[in-house]
Structures are given as structure tokens and as C-alpha cells.
Amino acid sequence: METKRFTTNKEDLAEAAAIIRNGGIVAFPTETVYGLGANALDPEAVKKVYDAKGRPGDNPMIVHIARASDIGQMTPMLSPKIVTLIENFWPGPLTLVLKKKEGIPKRTTGGLDTVAVRMPDDPAALEIISRAGCPVAAPSANLSGRPSPTRAEHVLADLDGKIDAVVMGSECRVGIESTVLDMTGDVPVILRPGIVTADNIEAALGVKVEYDPHLKQNPKDETADFKPRSPGMKYRHYAPKADMLVVEGQRDDVKREIERLKKLNEGMGNKVGTILFEEKAFIEAAHDLFAELRELDKEGVDMILAGALSDKDGVGFAVMNRMLKSAGYNIVKV
Ligand code: TXA
Ligand code: MG
């Protein structure tokens, strides 16, 4: 199929919305990463998204809405806590996992009785969703397993010819996907860390937030019981084509080790790329990580050496969650 290119002007967005309304699939920018959108209420359309991405069918999708009040289509009732979260963080990069209303297709929620909902903070995304006139299921617009796309060119690199259209917007502001917060139990639980941190949520709610325990575990650790509640977390993710190693430790030691490994590997004829963010520049790291992984792939490196960020809870922790998955949890401590 030919993949149409749209700009972010009104007429183009109206056409993009019409494609979604009529059962097609369209990639569009959000503030986090580009999403690949389909009518969330149309199982056939949602199936097209799974097929284009090569995504396993039990991995549920986030449903995107353009007005907070549209959440009523997804879930039966809003607790005071959920209302507070919506008031504080929407539109924005916080996804809420809620009890699902009947009528949302199984295909959209991967057969779960919960549904993940968010209202993105991007004018083009909001325009498309509101014009489509339906909730829009949208996973990240990459081939399953590849780094999430933060630029339109990344979407085309993975999906050109496989989807109906791409809205060629600007670079995504955040660069990593939304925080996924499970609000179905007594305690809010972070299933996927993001730029909205546990501290931010605790400050808004005045209650303690927990992490899904697997987020603090290394799945390669055989003593750990690795059963994540967010199905997306069990697949290998964000993987560059090159082998990747994360080096963890004091900053100077990390720099030295990366230099040492680079030299030796280059001496053997390998092309080596490095990812080393400024210390404590977690927001920038979030913005750049996926783009850098794709850039190094394009350069055809054989090996990527990345310096770990030291952060146990905040935005740096969210970046490390992606970096470690990219590296298949291949990590050395110095
Ligand atoms: O920032 C984002 O969230 C981007 C943009 C496009 O909005 N979307 C995104 O979607 O990252 P996706 O499909 O790549 O990731 C959705 C994550 C997966 O880890 C999935 O398992 C989890 O959310 N998820 C979705 N529905 C869920 C549910 N009902 N219960 C638990 N986890 C859920
Ligand atoms: Mg994804």
C-alpha cells in the first residue's frame, strides 16, 4: 500500500481523522512518541495495527481521547483519586489503567478487563482524535521490538508501505512513552515509568505510589519471579540492531571503561558507537535516547556502549528502564 504523507495543517488532519474513522491506520505525533492510531472500538482496525507492527496480540493498547470527559466511554466510574490525576496531568504523558466498560473490544485491551487511557498533549494528536469522533487506540508507531519513534522519519523507516498515512509533525518533546499507572487497586501502581514520576503522582494524590516489583528487577536474574502486570513489559523492546552493553558505576569510571572497551573492540575491526548523557540531564536523556539508538543503527555500528544514569526513582529511572531493555539487560558494573 502507498503510505500518504500529511502535514499538520487542518485540512490534512481532517483527512487523517477520516481515515481512522473509516477503519484505516494513521501514525501521528504525540508529546511522548509517535503513535499508530486506529478506531479503538473497531476490532478489524485494531487488528491492522497489530499486523503492521508485528505486535503480539495479547499486548494491550492505550486508548487516546481528546477530551477528559470522553473517559466515560471507557470506564464505569471515576474515584476522587482518578479525578485528581486527570485534573493534574491531562492532557499529558500519564496513562491510567482503569476498570473497562463493556463494549470495548477484547482486541484493544488484549483480552484484559481493564483499559489504559490517556489524553495526549499535542495539538495535532488532539485534533485528529476529536475529528475522528472515536477513541483512538495507538501504540508507539514502530515495528514491534524496535526503538519507539520520536520523529516522523523514524515512523517511515519502520512502517512506510504498511500503514495508510503518517502525519509528518515535529520531533516529540518528551521522547519516551507515557507513565502507565494502574488505578484499579487500593494503591496506585506504576507499571511503566515515564516523565511523570512517582514523586509527581504522590504530590498530587497525597498517598504513596508503588512500582510493579518487576521494574526493579533484572529478568536475567533467575532467582527473581518475573511476571509483569503490564503485558508489554515481557517482550524484548527498543532493541537496536547492534549488540549493546550498559556500563554502570561512578561517572569517571564509566567513561574510562567505555573508552577502554571501545578501543579494544575497534582494534578488532568493530564499529563502536557510544551513548553517554550529561550527568543528571535526565530530561535530555529521555528526549534523545531512542533517536540516538536509531542514529547508531543507521551508521551501521556493530556495538553500542552506553553509560548508565544514576537515578533510582525519577526521570533517569524511566530512561534506564528503556536503556536496559534495549541492551537486553546486558550490563556491567565498574
Ligand atoms: O506515550 C505513550 O504511551 C505512547 C503514545 C503513542 O501515546 N503509546 C505507547 O503505547 O507507548 P504502547 O502500546 O507502545 O505501550 C502501551 C503499554 C504497554 O506496555 C502495555 O502492555 C501497557 O501499556 N498497557 C496497555 N493496556 C494495559 C492494561 N489494560 N493493563 C496493563 N498494561 C497495559
Ligand atoms: Mg511501544
Structure characterization notes:
This protein is an alpha/beta fold and 334 residues long. Helix content is 33%, strand content 17%. It has an eleven-stranded mixed β-sheet, with helices on both faces. It has a four-stranded parallel β-sheet with strand order 13-14-12-15, with helices on both faces. It is globular. The chain binds threonylcarbamoyladenylate (TXA) and magnesium ion (MG). Magnesium ion (MG) binds next to loops.
Count of helical regions: 10
Global structural class: alpha/beta
Residue-averaged pLDDT:
94
Largest beta-sheet details = 11 strands, mixed
The bound ligands are: threonylcarbamoyladenylate, magnesium ion
Radius of gyration: 20 Å
Beta strands, count: 15
Q: Encode the helix/strand succession as letters.
A: EHEEHEHEHEHEHEEEHEEHEHEHE
Strand fraction equals: 15-25%
Percentage of residues in helical conformation: 25-40%
Strand order of the largest sheet: 1-8-2-3-7-4-6-5-9-10-11
> Cα distance, first to last residue?
50 Å
Globally, the shape reads globular
Low-confidence stretches: none
